[in-house]
Design a protein that fits this description.
Number of strands: 0
Largest sheet: none
Structural class: mainly alpha
Oligomer: single chain
Mean pLDDT: 88
Shape: globular
Low-confidence stretches: none
Length: 217
């Protein structure tokens, strides 16, 4: 496989900041909402920090995004999950659903931030080379945050969507979903391998992308 070093450096520079902040703020949102609902575990462990180093998972934050950039020019990754002690929450099942939803909603907020960033760059930066790099970064920020938003809302344990759904299911159904969690990773990998996740996610991501563009451009 031929590697264009300049292209790799450029792509890494474009994606690094959006990916780091997307996964960092996603996790901080979980911990912050949990602290407001009665569980201070993440706060006590220093995980409510915006310092990406606090949230880095060696595989998910470094190895996987780097390999994806080299192979596809697209970056995807995950941070070290913020610990939440469900038993400390005021209303464990319902509050856990709110905590779970906080991460994807943080990604929506960041996608909006990057859309506004693009708009500001387009009207304030006159140097074409600088504008091109910043625009690429903004587009990367929109994409990674919308991907994380949609992906995490799939109701497959341990993704956030399963915890959101569990908060509204009868207890017996929620317990059955909990039993699936040890196999969730393999289910997700299988859905990715057979292209099912991509088939479902792509039109949803495109819808949100078009909606954001229509609101700000």
């Amino acid at each position: 496989m031929d590697f264009d070093i300049e292209k790799i450096i450029y792509t890494t520079a474009v994606w690094a900041l959006p990916v780091l902040f997307a996964i960092t703020l996603h996790e901080v949102a979980h911990g912050w909402v949990a602290s407001k609902l009665g569980d201070s575990t993440a706060k006590m462990l220093g995980r409510l920090s915006l310092n990406p180093i606090k949230h880095i998972d060696p595989i998910g934050t470094i190895v996987v995004p780097l390999v994806m950039v080299l192979v596809s020019g697209f970056a995807f990754g995950w941070a070290k999950p913020v610990p939440v002690n469900m038993n400390n929450l005021n209303n464990p099942r319902k509050d856990m659903a709110i905590v779970a939803m906080a991460g994807p909603l943080a990604n929506v907020a960041m996608a909006i931030f990057w859309v506004i960033f693009l708009k500001l760059v387009s009207i304030t930066v006159s140097d074409l080379n600088i504008a091109k790099g910043l625009m690429a970064m903004g587009q990367a920020g929109i994409i990674i945050n919308l991907v994380l938003f949609v992906f995490n809302l799939f109701p497959i344990p341990p993704l956030d969507g399963s915890k959101v759904l569990s908060g509204f299911l009868p207890r017996s159904a929620a317990l059955m979903m909990d039993k699936i969690e040890p196999y969730g990773f393999f289910i997700v990998v299988g859905l990715l391998y057979f292209g099912i996740l991509g088939t479902v996610m792509n039109p949803i991501i495109s819808f949100f992308m078009n909606t954001l563009n229509s609101l700000f451009f």
